[in-house]
Amino acid sequence: MDRSTNLDIEELKMTREQYILATQQNNLPRAENAQLYPVGIYGWRKRCLYFFVLLLLVTMIVNLAMTIWILKVMNFTVDGMGNLRVTKKGIRLEGISEFLLPLYVKEIHSRKDSPLVLQSDRNVTVNARNHMGQLTGQLTVGTEGAVFGHSVETPHIRAEPSQDLRLESPTRSLIMEAPRGVQVHAAAGDFKATCRKELHLQSTEGEIFLNADTIRLGNLPTGSFSSAPSASNARQTVYELCVCPNGKLYLSPAGAASTCQSSSNICLWS
Q1: Rounded to two decimals, what is the model's pTM?
Q2: β-strand partners of 93
Q3: What is the mean pLDDT of each run of 10 residues along the chain (270 residues)?
């Protein structure tokens, strides 16, 4: 009984205190003309903020669309771009490519069973330089053929089918050297060697061997041992091949015996 009475008394005290507090809050004096300050962004600032956010969103969408378009056009993949592929051994380029600036590489080769084509509207020039940047070799391929700036070492030289092979040095000499020999072979045609001055065939230790069914020496001078030719020389059809002491060849009208004379006018003026 006493415990329940104590609880009722405590509840009454709490209710009285709540009443007093509520009455005091209602009786507090309020300030007249109190100014309220709004918190946040309003007016033109809010509109500018929304405009910039919208502009940023549009810019991001346009950039994303342009990036996707570039990736699609350039054919970007994990392995490379377009015909350019990055492999473990280097860079692999397929198809037709155009280089507008100098290209510096260590090695260029085509795919297996495929030719390597270098094409230019004018000339294709390949330069070789040493560690100091000095030019040590040059190859220029143009409309008139291949031009080599220095010596060339190759196991085989051939022309295209149905085309002539021509080796020419316009201002210098043309030298062909090999430790075991130089062979020039024409399977179905002629071999011609022409020069403006002398043509020298020299063998230091061996011999010069001419093997053919017919050996023809044209434009050889005709020698004579008399200053006035006889009437029989006009009808002469057989001649004898003679050699001067200095090695010069000439023809002499053939007779019953040898007509070669060391005092011939050809040998005197040679």
Answers
A1: 0.39
A2: 84
A3: 56 62 54 59 83 95 94 81 79 78 79 80 83 84 76 78 79 80 78 80 83 84 61 69 84 80 66
